[in-house]
Amino acid sequence: MARQLIKGNEAILKSAVLAGCRAFYGYPITPASEITEAAAKYLPRVGGVFLQAESETAAINMIYGAASAGVRVMTASSGPGISLMQEGLSYLAGAELPCVVADIMRGGPGLGNIAPEQSDYFQVVKGGGHGSYRTIVLAPDSAQEMADLTALAFELADKYRNPVFVLADGTIGQMMEPVEFMARPVAPPRFPWAVEGNAATRNNLVSSIYLEPDALEAHVNKLEEKYRRCEREEVRCEQYRTEDAELVLVGYGIVARLLKSVVEELRSEGWPIGLLRPITLYPFPTAAVRRLAGQASLFAVVELSTGQMVDDVRLAVEGRCPVEFHGRTGGNIPSTDEIIRFLKNVWGRRRAAPRVDELEVLHA
Amino acid sequence: MAAEKPERGYVTIDDEECKGCGLCVESCVPKLLRLGDALNRSGYHAATYAGRGCTGCGLCFLVCPEPGAIRVYKRLQAA
Amino acid sequence: MPEPNVSAPPEGLTLIHSKAAAFYDHYERKSELQNQTHYCPGCGHGVAHKLLARAIDELGVQDRTVLVSPVGCSVFAYYYFDVGNVQAAHGRAPAVATGIKRARPEAIVISYQGDGDLAAIGTAEILHAANRGEAITVIFINNAIYGMTGGQLAPTTPVGCWSTTSPYGRNIWNEGYPLHVVETLASLEAPVYLERVALGNSKQVMQAAKAIRRGVENQVKGLGFSLIEVLSPCPTIWKETPVEAQRRVREELAQLYPLGVVRDKTKDAPRRPAPSFPPPLTALPELLDIEESETLAPPVPASHDHADWRIKVAGFGGQGVLMLGEVLAEAGLAAGLEVSWLPSYGPEMRSGTSNCHVRLSARPVDSPLVTQPNVLVALNEPSLRKFLPEVAPGGYVLYNGPEPPADCRRPDVRLLAREFVALADRLGDARVGNIVTLGALLEAAGVVEEQFVDRALARLVKQARLLDLDRKALAAGREAVHQEAPHDIP
Prior knowledge:
Strand order of the largest sheet of chain B: 1-4
Number of helices of chain B: 2
CATH superfamily of the largest domain in chain C: Thiamin diphosphate (ThDP)-binding fold, Pyr/PP domains
Distance between the termini of chain B: 30 Å
CATH class of the largest domain in chain C: Alpha Beta
Order of helices and strands of chain B: EHEEHE
Strand content of chain B: 15-25%
CATH class of chain B: Alpha Beta
Largest sheet of chain C: 7 strands, mixed
Number of strands of chain C: 14
Number of domains of chain B: 1
Oligomer: heterotrimer
Number of strands of chain B: 4
Strand content of chain C: 15-25%
Number of helices of chain C: 16
Shape of chain B: globular
Helix content of chain B: 10-25%
Order of helices and strands of chain C: EHEEHEHHEHHEHEHHEHEHEEEHEEHHHH
Shape of chain C: elongated
Structural class of chain B: alpha+beta
C-alpha cells in the first residue's frame, strides 16, 4: 500500500479496523476526538458499531459488554476521560477482557488544558483503578507507530485477555505524517470464553467477583503470572547510539524525537551520548536500562510532566548511576536548545563529583 | 361408605430448600400449608403440606422465592 | 436429580409447576448450600428470578439469553440462571447490555438491577439506554432500600422512612423526594414498554409474571427498550416478617408508586433496521479511504538530496494556515521526501491565531516541532512579531503585508512582504491568499517542484472550480515575487 499523509489519531482508527476492530464506544475530548470522529465515519461502513456514549464511564462499560460478547473493541480519550474510565478498566482487567484504549494525553490536573503533556503515565502505566492489575501500555512516537502499535495492541489484548493502552501525547495524535498500513486486513477473531447469546457459549460467565479470599487470591495470582509472562515476552524499546554511551537519555513519544535531535547534535560535538526510547511503558524495558546503567555515568530523563516515568528509570537503574530529570508541563514542549542546556549543566556537575559521593547523595 | 373423591392437586415442598418465609402459607386459599414444627438443616421451620385437599392452583409456587422448593401437581382433565 | 426431601404425589397427577429450566439444577458457582439461593427468607429477588426464568422458558430463548447481573443483592444472579452471564460494575448494567446487544443483536439481553444500582449510581446509564431505545429488557427491582450493604437510603426510600443513613427518617430537605423511575423514563420518546408491578400478594405476582414475560417477549419480537419496575419486599432490612413485608409492598409502596402500564408502544413502535452484512475483508482498505497502490512517484530530484525545510506557517484562523502547511507536506511526500505536519490545535482553530509546523527532509524527520524555522510564512502581523526572532539566519520570511513594521525587521533573513491576501481577493476569493503565498514561497525558495504541489492540490481540493482558482493563485504568487518592493531583503 501507498504511504499516505495522515493524522496520528486517524491512523489509530484505520489501523484498528484493519486489525479486526468492529466496535467503538467513545466520548469526544480534545485532543483525541479525531479518533472518535473517524470511528463514526468508518465503523458503519465495515458493518461495525459506533456509538457516542453519554460519558466515558458509560463508554468503557459498553466496551466491557462488547468485549464480553467477543468483539474486538476500542475507545479513545484523554486525561479527564481516562480518569473516568478507570473503574471500567479495573473491571475489564479483573474479568480478563481484551480491549484497546487510546489515550491522547493533554495537560492536567483537573481541566488543565488541551495542549500536549505526558502526565497520564501514572494513571495509565501504574493503573489508576482499584486492585492488583496492570494494563499493557504502548507508546508510539510517530503516525506510523500509531498505526503499527494499535494493530499490535489488539494482538496483545487478545493474547493476554487484558486492556491495552496506546499512550500518546496530543502532538503525536494531531500531527500528520506518511503512514503505510498493514497489507492484509485481519478477520475479526472469535473467542471460546465469550458470551455470545447462543447454545455454544451458554455456560460462559464474565465476572470479576471472587467472594472467597482464597479464590480471589488464586485469581489475582493468575493475573500476576500473566503479567510476569508479559514482562518476559513483550518488552520493546529502541536504542539509538547507546553502544558506547556514557550519558543515556530516556524519553518516549514526542520527547524521544526531540532527544534524537539532541543526540545527533551533541554527538557531533563529541559527546558519548545515546537515547533509550521505551516503546512498551508496561512492561517497562527494565533490563535494557539496567544494562546501560552498567556502562553509563549519567541518565537523563525528559518528560512532559513533573516526573512520572523517571520513577521507573530510577527503579531500573537501582542506584548504579545518577538519574537527572527535566520536565515541562502545561503544553510546553522543550526546545532542543533547552534540553542541551539542561544536559550541559547536569553533565558538568556529574563529571566534577566522584561517583561514591553521588551514590551517598542518592541514598541519603 | 362412598369412595373418596380423587385428589385434584398436590404440593411437595423441598424441606432443605425451603427457608420458612411463610409466603406460601399466606397464599394458600384452602389453608393447607403450614410451617413445620421441626427445624431443617438450615435452621428454618420449613413449610409442610397437610397432605389432602390441594386444588393445584399454583399460587404457593408463584409467591415462593425459592426456584425449586415447591412443586405443584394437578389432575388434568382427560382429553 | 433425586429429591430425597419430598414425598411422592398420588398417582394420576401431573407436575404443573416446578423449577424453571432456565435455572441450573444445582448452583455450582455457589460455594455452599448449592440447593438454595443466597437470598433471605421472603426476599422479592427470588420471586422475580422465578418469573424471569419462567418467561425465558415459555419464550424458548434460554440459549439466546444473556443476563447482566448488577451490584447489589442480585450480584450473584449468575449462580442461578442457566444462560450466558455477564456481571457488571455498579449501575453500569445498561451500558454493558448495550455493548452486548450491539455486538450480538440476536441475543436476548436482560439487565437485572436494583434501586441503588439503577436509580442512583446508574441513573445516567439507564436514562440514556432508554433514550437510545436499546433493544434490551430491564428488570428493575425496587425495594426502597440498599439491602446488600446493610440498609442505607435508596433514591426510592419513602419520605420519613428510616435507613442506616437516614436514621431520623428520609428528610425532603436533605435527601429530596423518592425517585419515580418508570414515570421519569416515560418522559422519553424511545421506550417501547414501561410497567410497574408489585410482589405484594399472589394476584400482584401474577400480574408481575405477565409484565416480565411481556418485557422479554418485546425483545424477542425485535422491539426496543422495555423496563419492568418490580416493587419488592426486603423483610430483613425492613425488619419485618416476610408476610408483613409483603403487606407493606401492597399497602404502602404500591400507594407511593402507582402500579400499571405507563408506556406501551408495542403495536406501533418502529422496528430496528437489521444490521448490515459486513463487507469482505478485501474491501476494507478502500472503505477506509486507504490508497491501495503506489502511484508511480518520479525519482527524487537530486536537488532534494540535502533538503531540510523547517517551515512555520502562522496567521489568523480562517486564513488557510493549516491547509497551506498540508499542501507543502503532501507535495513533499509526492516528491519522495520525508515529511511531517503539526498543527496548533484546539479552540484557537476556530478563532484567533493558528499555526503549523511543517518539515520536508531528505532524511527521516527527527522532531516534527519547528523551533528554528528556515521558512516562516506569516499571514498577519502578530505572527511575524511572534515568530520572526526564531527564524534561522539566512531563512526565508514571507509576510502578508505591504511592509513589515519598523520594529519587526531582521537584516539576516530573506524577507518578502507582499499583500498576498489582497492579491487573492483580486483573483476573486480572498480565501486563496494562502495559496498565493505558497506560490511566492515556491518562487522565492524553491522548496518543492510545481508538479508535486499541483498533485498535492489535486488531492486536497475536490472541487474543480476551487482547484482552478488555486492554480491561478499559485501563478499570481510566483509573479508577485518579481514585483519591485522596497522592503525586500534579498
